[in-house]
From TrEMBL:
UniProt keyword annotations, A-Z: Cytoplasm, DNA-binding, Endonuclease, Hydrolase, Magnesium, Metal-binding, Nuclease, Nucleus, RNA-binding
Organism domain of life: Eukaryota
Organism: Gasterosteus aculeatus aculeatus (three-spined stickleback)
InterPro entries for this protein: Endonuclease-V
One function term, GO molecular function aspect: single-stranded RNA binding
N-terminal signal peptide: none
Protein name: Endonuclease V
Oligomeric and partner information: Monomer. Interacts with PABPC1; the interaction is RNA-dependent and stimulates ENDOV activity.
GO cellular component labels: cytoplasmic stress granule; nucleolus
Gene3D superfamilies: archaeoglobus fulgidus dsm 4304 superfamily
Cofactor(s) essential for the protein: Mg(2+)
Length: 261
DNA sequence: GCGACAG
DNA sequence: ATCTTGTCGC
């Protein structure tokens, strides 16, 4: 008797997450993180994968490094990749991490002086079913401080998108205001952050690795010109642009009736 | 059956 | 994730 399709894989992934989870550092480890104005912080990174409609397999993997505090692009790398793992909520890292790591390794090899001091990741960190989202996974495997920023609320560990949550959102007055996302256990898994004065819809910030929640929220706010922090906004923009222009252009397959036998 | 489902 | 036009507001 074999398990239903996919169940073995998910079980294996869960134990991998449990194993790596032990290595997450949820405190500030860098001097610049303690500084009121982040002095000493000069480079912030962003990573992302972009897709084309109807293609779940091919994607553009992107890494950008921005200067801090000016948020100017210092480095960008994009590469077409072919994914193997499916998207399953809670297991995003197994789909994306290998290619994000490769991009970080290319940077390390070619321009080590541009290594980011912190990486913004599109997705959650410890705000996750098993407290080990994409930002933690990439953080542990790369050894770099990482911050998870999700654009949508994952309902997890007793955190619900209910009326209470909505009224907490409504109470966020200005950019930088936040409220904690508290698990049933009492642990603060992350924070909902109003990232700018003009955006009412918050982003969900959580620790990836080697940074505290408080610092992660403060840093995220300081990297926001718009709702989404600049490193992630830049990387997503460039990846989408790359997909639409030169790099990813193949003729559509012509379907012939006689092939449909 | 119904709702939830980071990207 | 991606699609797509206009529209409202500063």
């Amino acid at each position: 008797m074999s398990a239903p399709p996919g169940e073995d894989l998910v079980n294996q992934w869960e134990s991998e997450q449990a194993r790596l989870r032990l290595q997450v550092v949820e405190e500030d480890t860098e001097d610049w993180q303690r500084s009121p104005d982040f002095s000493g912080l000069e480079r912030v990174g962003g990573v992302d994968l972009s897709f084309i409609k109807g293609d779940e397999v091919n994607a553009c993997a992107q890494l950008v490094v921005l200067s801090y505090p000016d948020l100017e692009v210092l480095y960008e790398d994009s590469r077409m990749v072919t994914l193997t793992a499916p998207y399953i909520a809670g297991f995003l890292a197994f789909r994306e991490t290998p290619f994000l790591l490769e991009a970080l390794q290319r940077l390390e090899r070619n321009q080590p002086k541009l290594r980011p001091q912190v990486v913004f990741v599109d997705g959650n960190g410890v705000f996750h079913y098993r407290e080990f989202g994409l930002a933690c996974h990439l953080g542990v495997l790369s050894g770099l401080p990482c911050v998870g920023v999700a654009k949508n609320l994952l309902q997890v560990q007793g955190v619900h998108k209910n009326e209470q949550h909505q009224s907490q959102i409504a109470a966020l007055q200005k950019g930088g205001d936040s409220f904690p996302l508290t698990a049933a256990s009492g642990k603060v898994l992350g924070k909902a952050l109003r990232s700018s004065d003009r955006s009412c819809k918050p982003v969900y910030v959580s620790v990836g690795h080697k940074i505290s929640v408080t610092t992660a929220v403060r840093l995220t706010h300081s990297c926001c010109r718009y709702r989404v922090p600049e490193p992630i906004r830049q990387v997503a923009k460039d990846a989408t642009k790359a997909l639409k222009t030169s790099k990813y252009r193949r003729p559509l397959k012509i379907c012939h009736l006689w092939e449909c036998a």
